[in-house]
From TrEMBL:
It comes from Terracoccus luteus. This is Ribonuclease BN (tRNA processing enzyme). It comes from the Bacteria. PANTHER family: METALLO-HYDROLASE YHFI-RELATED, ZINC PHOSPHODIESTERASE ELAC PROTEIN 1. Signal peptide: none annotated. GO terms for molecular function: 3'-tRNA processing endoribonuclease activity. Residues 49-225 form the Metallo-beta-lactamase domain. CDD domains: RNaseZ_short-form-like_MBL-fold.
Amino acid sequence: MEVTVVGCSGSFAGPDSPASSYLVRAEHEGRTWAVVLDLGNGALGALQRHLDPADVDAVLLSHLHVDHCVDVCGLYVLLTYHPSSPGPRRADRLPVHGPAGAGEQLARAYGDATPEALQRVLAFPTLTDRVPVVVGPFTITPVRVEHPVEAYGFRVEAGGRTLAYTGDTDSCPALTDLMTGADLVLADSAFVDGRDEATGIHLSGSRAARAAVAAGGVGRLVLTHLPAWNDPEVCRSQAAGVWPGVVELAEPGATYTV
């Protein structure tokens, strides 16, 4: 399983990175399968450096804040109006798994489309806590986490390896199930200890590390979703005070073999 950081800027696209998006690929039955976890501001442009978006097998949206989902609107345009063919780019509808109401909310974000228009090229299955989504070699289990809106982390399993992506969350018991035994954890680290005191919204570096330690069996910890106003080294340092290994920082274009 190969994981590529398409975008890792938190809350809005930064000067050096799109907002949240992660491309996960694996070989299976003679071809490469690809799923995209989140598609935030600017991510569709960067995604095209790695593959034709029409070749994505599924998109999964952790939640419906724009920094995680709004570029699905551009994906609709690409699949509907690309001049390479007289009809839609795909013979089937691309599944976009998300919280309840994803199709309706994205149609409103697009502005002059209806849910029915989007559904000519996109399907919007609704995620359910702990009910796996199977896409080719991937078993992807959404785990409800702690955020002001309905939000999920994703536990992605393929070929005996596991990726855990927290999405946006504060500390919560569900992180143990999400992270336990994961070979790689991509953890929200939008908050900074001593500066951000609100609860129920985001992890800090130390909270992310504490959750990974408590889960047990985590191989690599990568901090992501860092807003442009954060000093990444402060986030790394706060996590390093808890995490026993090397704390890594996500960077756009970085690829991890899981």
